[in-house]
Fold each of these.
Amino acid sequence: MAHWFAMGGYAVYVWPAYAAFFIVLAWDWFAPALRRRRLTRELRGRIARERTRATRAPRAEAST
Amino acid sequence: MSRSYLPHWVHWLGSPPNFYRFAGALRPWLMAVALVGAAAGLYGGLVLAPPDYQQGDAYRIIFIHVPSAWMSLFIYATMAVAGLVALVWRVKLAEVIAMECAPTGAAFTFITLVTGSLWGKPMWGTWWTWDARLTSELVLLFLYLGVIGLYNAFEDRRRGARAASLLALVGIVNLPIVHYSVQWWNTLHQGTTVDFLDPARSSIAPSMLWPLLVMALATHLYFFASLLGRTRTGLLSLESGKQWVRALVDGQPAQTTGAPT
Amino acid sequence: MNMASTAQMVVDRTSVLVRPQHASTFAACTALLRRDFVLAWRRRGELFLPLLYAVIVAALFPFALGPDPELLARIAGGVLLVIVVLAMLPALESMFRTDLEDGTLEQWVLAPQPLALLALTRVIAHWLTTVLPLVVVMPLLGTLLNLPVKALPVLIGALLLATPLLALLGSVLSALAAGARRSGILMALMLLPLAVPVVIFAAGAIAGAQSGMPYLAPLTWLAAALVLAIVLAPLACAAALRIAVES
C-alpha cells in the first residue's frame, strides 16, 4: 500500500496534482449553491416586504 | 403561419421554468454516472495500469491532466456556440448557459495548467516554459477570465451576456492554436498521442488508454451536471421577478441544510 | 394646373425619390475623419501623455536592470513592444466612451452608412492621432535601450504592422466595454491575451534582425493578421457597438 502511495518516488508531484483536481472541481460544484441560497433568501425577503405592503395599503383605504 | 425548423421539444426546453425542472431532474443522474465513471477510471489509471517505462509512476497525472485539457477546450466551444445563439437569436436560456460555462471552463483550464506544471517539473525539469501549447493554454485562461470580467461589469445582465458572448467568439481563434500548437511549432510539450477517429492507432498502451477515455467521459458528464446546476441558479437570478420563481421560492420551506440543487 | 406643369411635378417628385437622400459613405467617413482630427488637435496636449509614459517606462529599465549594454540590447525589442501595448491601453479604452455618453454613437448606429466602415474610420483616426506619434518615438527609445541600428528598420516595420493590428483588436474590445461600468483593469485583461501572439511575432522579428536571423516570416504573419483584422474587426466592432447602444 505504501509502495503504491509512494508512486515510484513521484508522490510529491502526483498527489498534489490529484488534490488540485478534486479541490477545484469541488469548489466548482458547491459555489453555485451558496449563490443560490443567498438569492432565495433575498427573494423571500422581497416577497415578504411586498406582502406586508399589500396588506397595509387596503387597511389604510378602508379606514378613510 | 411561420414554421419552425426545430423540433417542438427544443422550444419547450427553451422556456426557463421548463428547463429548470428538466435540469433539476437530470442533474443528479449525470453526476452519479460521472462519479462512478471517475471511480472506475481512477482505479484503472492509478492501480491497474502499469508504470510507464520512461516516466515511471509520474505519468499517472495524465488521467486528470489530459481530460481537463480536453474539457478546457470543449467548454470554450460550448460557450461560443451558446453565445452565438444568444447573439443571433437573443434566446434568454442561451445567454445564461453561455455565461455559466465560463467559471467551469476556467476551473478546468486552471487544473490543466497546475497538473501540467506538476507533471513538467519531474519530467522536463521545469515548472513552466513558454512554449506554444502552454502559452496558448494560459491565454485560454485569460480569455475565460476576460469573459467573466466583462459579463460582471454590466448592470444589465442580458446586455452583459451578449457582450461577453461576442468576446468569447472573438477569442475562439485561440482554440485551434492550442490544439495544433504541438504540430505547428517545435514545442517541449509532447505531440498528439490519442487519435479520436481511430483510437486503436493511438500511440498509447490500451491499459492506459481506457482509463483515460473513461475519465474523459466522466469529466464531460460532470461538466454537464455542473452546467445544469449553474444554469438553474442563473435562471433564478435572471427571472427573479417572474411568477414561477416566486412560487418556487415561496413554496419551499426554509432550508437550513440540504444538498445543493 | 396644365399638363406641362403636372408632368414637371411628377418628374421632380420621382427624381427626388431617385436622388440619394443622404451623404455618400465616402463623404461620411471623411467627415468623421475630419471631426476626429479637429477634436484631437483641440486636445493636442493630451496626445503627448502616452509618449511621456513610454519614455519614462523605457527609462525605468536601465535603472532597474543596470546599464549593462549587452543586456539592454538583448531585451530592447521586447521591452519596446510591451511599452507600446501598455501605452496604447488608456487611449483604446476611451475610443468610444465619449461618443456613447453624448449620443453620437446612436446616430452612428441609425445612420444609413455601414456601421463597420464608420468604426474602421474611427480606428484609422485613432491610430493616426494617438499611435503614430508613439511609433515615431520608438526608434529613439530603441537607441536609448541600446538596440543596434541595423534592427531599427525592422523595428519600425514591425510596429507599423503590429500597432494597427492592436488598434483594431482594441477597437472591438473597447466597443464591448463601452457599455459596461468603468473598470480600469478590464481592458487590459481582455486585450493582453489577444495581444500575446502579436507581441511574440513582432518581438521575434526584431530579435531576428538583431542576431542576423530571418525576420521576414514573423513580419509576413503580422501582415496577414493585419489584413484579416482590417476586414473582420470592423464587423465585430459594429456588432459590439450595437450591443453598447441598446439600453
Amino acid sequence: MKIELKNLSHTYDVEVLHQLELVLENYKSVALIGVSGSGKSTLIRIMSGLEQPTEGEVFINDMSVKDKEYRDHVGFVFQSHNLFPHLTLKRNITLVLEKTRGIEKKEAERIAEERLTQLHLEDQMDKLPKNVSGGQAQRASLARALSVNPDIIFLDEPTSSLDPILTHEVLTAVEELKQLGKKFVFVTHVMSFVHDFADYVIYMDDGKIVEQGPPSMLDKPKTKEFQAFMNKVR
Amino acid sequence: MKSKTKIHFEKNAGTYIAYVLAFLTIAAFVAFVVLAQTEEFRIVGYEAYSSLILEGIGNTIYVSIIALLGSLVLGFLLYLMSISKIKYFKALDDVFTEIIYGTPLLVLIIITTFLISPAFVDQINRTWTGIIALVVYMGPYMKNVYKSAFSSISEEQYMAMDLFGFTPYQRYRYIIIPQVIRILMPPMMNNFSLIIKGSALLNVLSYNELYYTVVVAQSKTFAFIEGYVLMWVLYLIITIPLSQLTKYIERKWSL
C-alpha cells in the first residue's frame, strides 16, 4: 500500500497533529505507536476517512481520503467492538452487505459464514454480541470489516479492552489475515505484536512523527522521547 | 454440567422461598389489619353494581391507552425540541417541562377543563379535556424515555454506520429504531402504570372510569371502606400484570 501525508495538521480545541509529512510505499503492515494523546488515534482516524483533517492532504493508494468513494475501500476496527448489539454476529455482516453493498441475501450469508469461519467463529455466528466473549466480538468486528473486501484495514487499539489471553486470540487472527495478503495500519500498545507483525513503525509524540523505520528501531531508540517511551512500555 | 444445573436450581429455590416469605409477610400484615377491625366488612353489596364497575374498568383502560398514545406523540415532539438546534424550541421545551414537573395532575385536569379548553372551544367534552390533561402531564416524562433510549446508542455505532455508508433511512429502519424500541419498552410501560393510576383523578370530571363508578356504587351501598378496598384490588389487578409483563420484556429484550 502507499501512504502519503502532505502538510497534515489537525486541530480540535488544541492542535493534535502538527504539519506531518510522510511518504510510504510497499509496506504491508504499518504500526503507529506513542503515548496517549500523542495524536496516533487521530492520525489513524484521518487516514481511514472517519475524520477530515483541518489542514493538509492525505492520499492512500493515490486516493484522497476526502473522496466520497474512499470509504468503500477501507475497513476499520475500533478499540471496543462496535457491532450492532441487537443483531447476531452473522446478521451484523449480512446487513452491511445487503444494504450498503447491494449484495443479495444468499450471497451475503455465504460471505458472512466464510469470514466468520476464517476468524474461527463458526460456532458463534447466531449469537448476539452480548453472548460472546470480548475477543470473539472483536474478531467478529474484524470479520465484518473484512466482509466488504477493503484494500486496507485500520485497527485502532483493537485489544485495549481485552485481557492478555483474548488479546493473543485477536492478534493471532490478525496475523493469519496478514498471511492471506491483507494490509493493515494499526495503533497498539502491545510491543511484541509490533515487533512480530509490523514491517514499518511510526513513533509519534506531541502531534509529530519523532522516529520511523523498520521494527528493529524498537531495540535502539535514537531520540530521548522514544527511549523514555520504550522504557515505560517494556 | 451437572454442578451448573444444581447451582441454578439452588439459586431458583432460594428466590422462590424468598418470594413465598414475602407473600406470607404481606398476608400476615393483612390478617392483622383485618382482625383488628371492629366494624363488619360488607363487600357483598357491590355485586349489584358489577356491570357498572366493569364498565368503569373498561373506560379506565380506554382513556389510559389513548393517553399513552397521545403522550408518546407529545413526548417525541418535546424530545425533538430538546435536541433542536433552534434555541427557541429548546427553551420552550425547558419552560414547559419545568411547569409540568411542578404541577399536580389534579390541578392540571381542572385548569385544562374549566379554564383553558373554554378559551378555545364553546362546547367542551370532558372526556377529551381529561385525556388532554393526562397527555400534557405525561409528555415530559415520555420525553425522558426517548432521551435515554436514543442516548444509549453509542457513538461508535454511529461511526460504524458512517463507515459502511448506511443511508439515513437504513440507519433508523435497521439499526436505531429496533434498538430504541427495546430500550424504550420498559420505562414506557412504567409510565403506562402512572397513567392508569393518574386516570383515577378524572373522577372529578364525573368521567365514568373505575374510581368514579366505585364512588357511585359507594353512595348506594354506604360501604365506603369496602369500596376503597375493592378499588385498590381492581387497580392492582390491572397494574401488577402490566409490571410483570414489563419485567419479562426487559429480560427478554435486553441488549
Amino acid sequence: MANVFNRMGDWVTDRAPGFLPFYRKHMTEYYAPKNFNLWYYFGVLALVVLINQIVTGIFLTMNYNDSAAGAFASVEYIMRDVEWGWLIRYMHSTGASLFFVVVFLHMFRGLLYGSYHKPRELVWLLGMLVFLVLMAEAFMGYVLPWGNMSFWGAKVIISLFGTIPVIGSTLVEWIMGDYLPADATLNRFFALHVIALPLVLLLLVVLHIFALHEVGSNNPDGIEIKKGPKGNRWDALKPADGIPFHPYYTVHDLVGVGFLLLVGAFIIFFAPTFGGWFLEHDNFIAANNLVTPAQIKPVWYFTPFYAIVRMIPSMFGTAVWGVLAMFGAIAVLFLLPWFDAGKVRSIRYRGTGYKVALALFVISFLGLAMIGTDLTDEIFPKIFGAKIDITLWDNVFGRLMTAIYFGYFVFLWFYTHLGWEKTKPVPERVTTHD
Amino acid sequence: MTKRYFFSIALALGLLFGSVAAQAEGPELPESGAGVRDQASLQRGAKLFFNYCVGCHSLKFMRYSRIASDLDLSEQDVMNNLNFTGAKFGEQVISHMPADQAAGYFGKAPPDLSLEVRARSSDWVYAYLNSFYLDSSRPVGWNNTVFPNASMPFPLWELQGVQTAQKKPGSDDIEKLELTHPGKLTPAQYQQAARDLTSFLEYVSEPAALQRQRYGIWVLLFLAGFTFLAYLLNKEYWKDVH
C-alpha cells in the first residue's frame, strides 16, 4: 500500500516538481517555535470557521432567494422544509459570531506577544485587511435574512456614509441602489457576500499565511528562534527551538479544533439564538420600513466600533466626526507596528506601563461594547439609582472609554519612542512554561 | 503564568457573556413554564390554537403535515380535528380571514404567528394571554397590560372569564387585574391552557427545536470522544519534545 502511495507521489513529482517542496516549506519543514501556548490556537480556529462558513454558505445559497419579496420566507423555508436546513443555517449563523470571537482573541494574542513587531509588520497588515473584509462580509451577510433588524441595521450603517459632506447623500443612494434598503440593495449584497468578498478574503488569508511562513512564527517569549542556536532532531541547520509544523502542531491544533467544535455544537443544538445575541428577536420579524424596532443596534461584534460613532458629537454642522473616529479606531490598529517601537515583544518582558496600558485597552474595548449593546442602560441605573440621566452617564463613560482606546496608541508612541519603557531581560532560548 | 492570564481572561469573558445572555430577554415577565418537550401539552395547545386563534391568525410557514408528524398525530386526526380551513394536508396554515378586511374590522390586520415566540419570547406570549381586561374605551372592548391598546379582542374569555383593571387610588395606572366573572376553567386550569398554547406557538416558531435537542447530545458526546482522542494523540506525539 505504502508502495502505491510512493509511486503516486513520484508520478506527481515527475510532472510537477514544485509541489513537494511547497508542501515541505509550509508543513513538514516549517519550523514553528515549540513553546506555543493556548493563545496560539485561534489562528487555526479562524481557518476552521472560515471553511465552515464557505461550506455551509454554499448549501444556503441553494435555497436562499435574494429578493426583498422572498428572502425572509426563503430563510424560514430553509429552517423548516429543507432537509437539515436548520442545522446548516445555525452552523452559518453561529459560525459568524464565533468567527469574531476567535479573530478578536487572535488579534489580542498579537498584542500580548508583540507579533506585529519587525519583521512581521506585513503579516499584521494583511491580517488587519482580513479583519476589515471580514467586517464587510459579516455586515452584508447580516442583511440577507431580510428581517426587520437586517433592514434597519443596513439603513443605519449605510447612512453613516451620508455624513460625508457634499457627496454623502449621493453616495448612500449609490450604495443602496434605491432611496431605502430594497431589492437592489439585497441583490448586490448577496452577490458581494457570496462571491466577491469571500474571494478577497481567501486571497488575503493565503497571503497572511505565506507572509507568516516567510518570517516564521512569533512565540510567547517574543524571541526570534531563527537567531538562536541551530540544529534540531530533524535538520542540523534549522532552529534548535523549532519543531515541524506537521505533524506536531497539526495534532496539537486538532485538540483546539475539538474544543471549538464542542462549543459551537453546544450553541447550535441548545442555544442557537444565544439569548438573542447571535440571532436577534427583531430579526424574526420580516423587514418593514414602516415599523422601527424599539432599539436599533448592530450585532454584538460591531458594537465597540459603533459605540464610538455615538460618542462623538456633531461639530461644525456635520456628524462626520463620529464616523471618522470609528474608521480611525480601525486605522490606528493598522498602524500599531509603527506606534510601538518597544525593544522587546512579549508582555512577559515588557515594562509595567505596557501591561497597564494593554489592560486598560481591553477594558475600553469591552466598555465600548457594553455601550454599543445598550447594556449600560440596564447596568447604570442598578449601580447609581433609577433617577440618573442615562444618556449623560453613557456619554461620560463612553467618551472616557473612547479616549482610553485611542490613548493606548498615543501612550505607546511616547512610551516606546522616548525610551520610557523599562524592560526585563529576555532569555536566549524559548522557555517552556506550564 | 500564561495559563493564569488565559484563565482569568476566559473567566472575565465568560462572566461578561453570562451577564449578557441573562440580560438579553428584555422587560421582566413571569416565567411561562412553556417548552416544546411535553408532547401532550403541545397537542392541547394545537387544539386551542385551531379552535380559538386560526379564525384570524395564520401560521404561514407551518404545514399541517409537519404538525402531524412532529406532534405524533395521524393525518386523520389533523384533517378532522384541527384543519378547519379546507387546506390540503401538505399545505400551510392560512387563516380564512382576508387581511384587508381584517384591517377594517380591527384597525390592524392580525399578525401571522409563525415566528411570534421567537420575535417576542414565550414569556411574553404567556403573559399576554393572561393580561386581557375589559376596557370600554377600546373599539373591541378589550385591552391588555402587556401590550397596551392591542387591537385584538379576547377570544379565550369564555375559558378564563372576564378580568377588570383595579386602578391605583388617585391615578390611572393599573395596579392589578381582578377576575370579576369566572370562566369555564379555574385560574389554574386557564394558566395551564395558556401555557399549552404558548408551548405550541414556541414549537411553531422553531419546529427544528425538537430535532436539534434530540441530536445535540449525541453530537456533543461524539465531539467529546474525538477531542479526547486528539488529546491523547497530541500527548503521544509531544511526549519526547522538551
Amino acid sequence: MRIVICDGHRVFADALASLLRSAGHEVAGTALDLDQAVGMLAASGSKPAEACIIDLRQPRSGQRRDIGRVIADTPGTAFVALTGLADPASLRHAIAAGVRGVALKGDDFGEFLRVLTEAVASRGTAAAGASSPEAGPVIVSSSARAVLKRGDGLAAGPSQFLTEREREALGRLVRGESTAGMARAMGVHVSTARTHIDAVLCKLGAHTRLEAVAYAVREGLVDVSGWQFEQHAAAT
Amino acid sequence: MTSPVKLLIVDDHRVFAEGLQSVFRAEPDFWPVAAVSDPGQVLGVVAASQAVALHAGLRPELGGQWLPDPG
C-alpha cells in the first residue's frame, strides 16, 4: 500500500514510517502539516497514495486548511485519523469530515494496521466519496470506539436516567399541567405524581419545575412543536 | 567494538513506542529490547534486561511520574 503520513511531530512520523515499511508498505512521504500533505498527494501523479494517515492536531496548519475539504478534493485516497486526542468531539469531527478510519496513538500497531487496511478496502467500495450511499462503514479501532461510546453517554445526559413515567410527567410539566391535573390524567394519586416530579427534578439536577421545563425544552426531551401549533391555531 | 546500548522504550502512545523500537532496530549502536506502554512493566524489564529506559513520554495520570522527566 502507498501511504502519505501527515503528523506535526517529526519523530512520530518517522517512527510510524519505519513500522509501515517493516510491514511491507510504501511510505510516499511524511508531511508535517496538511499543506505539505496536499502537495505530496498532488505530486503522486499516476501512482496516487491509497491512504493518508493524519493527526487531528495540526498546529502548523491552524485553521487555514479544512480537513473535510482536503478529503473531498482527494477522492482516490482513504484518510485515516491517528490521533492522541482521545475525546469524542474530536473523533466525531474527523468522521464528519469524511475520514475512512479512526485509531488512537495508544493503540498497538497491529490494531492500527487493521484499521488502515480495512479503511482502504472500505474506501474502495465508495464510488463517489464518503457521503456516497455506496461508502463502506468508517473503520474504528476498539479503543476509539470506546471513546465514542463514552461520548454517546455524555451526549445523552442525565435525561437517559428518566423512567417512562417520569418522562410523561416531565412532558405534562412542559404543558403546564398542575400536580392534581397530572395525577388525574396519569390515573395515579397526587402524592405519586409529586414523587414522579421530584424524581425528574432530582435526576435533571433542576431546583424548580420551571428549571426542569427549561431543560426539557432546551434539550429537546419533549416535543412541544405540535402543542405550540395548536395554541397558535386556537388563537387565530 | 562496543556492545550496543540496550533500550527500553516507554510511551503511553503504543504506536509511537513500537515505531521507535522499529527505528532503533535499524541502528547498529542500539538494541531496543522492548517497547512498553504500561509503566508497571518498566522496572521488571529494566531489571531483567539491564536496559536504559528511554522515557519517551508518559502522562502522569498513567503512573509515569516516578520516572525522571528528561526535560
